Amino acid sequence: MTLLTTWPESGPETVVRHTSDPVEIAAALAPIGVRYEQWPVRAGVAPDADAGTVLAAYRAEIATLTAEEGFATVDVAALHPADDPAWAERAQAARQKFLAEHTHEDDDEVRFFVAGSGAFYLHAGGEVHAVLCEEGDLLGVPRGTTHWFDMGTRPSFTAIRFFHEEDGWIATFTGDDIALRFPDFDTLRAARAEGGAA
After folding, report:
1. End-to-end CA distance of the chain, in Å?
2. What's the topology of domain 3-194?
3. pLDDT (tens digit, 9 = 90+) per residue, 31-59?
4. At residue 167, does pLDDT exceed 80?
5. Cβ atoms within 10 A of the Cβ of 136, count?
6. Count of H helices and E strands in the chain?
7. What is the DSSP letter of 131?
8. How far apart are alpha carbons 76 and 161 in whole angstroms?
């Protein structure tokens, strides 16, 4: 179940918004230019399916969005737990790459979650919006939006990525440690499982 939690940028002591209603989530994010919608989840696509299978399963939705937004490249990013001893080290290296607050000046960051989950934190308008995305969720973060992404201590997700530029996007880090002051992905998931706000 998708979850949006909003706090003042000063810290997570006060919860401004806490909802799992897709209509409310879309309405709350629209004023900051963020696109949120849900696509039907395709049965028979395994969480660890290869890129060709994933792209074929969502061909119609990909074609529609690409035509609307003019995307040049579409690919699949996936990270799932493995028994390989080196997996944890690779997973944490991947996680650390996106945990610090940053922007992308050259492209939007658009993701559709085919399987698993991850949390986007959007820092805009004096607030921090944590969007816990799960399978079926599409999130489009406009270029220039200050944000960070957390996939948790045991990442498990498959996502379709959309790019306007052939080379993808480059992160420009703000140097602010704001990400350290808000609940991480694992805390958000645990709170949701308990039925409360982080």
Report:
1. 15
2. Jelly Rolls (2.60.120)
3. 999 999 999 999 889 988 999 999 999 99
4. no
5. 17
6. 5, 11
7. E
8. 6
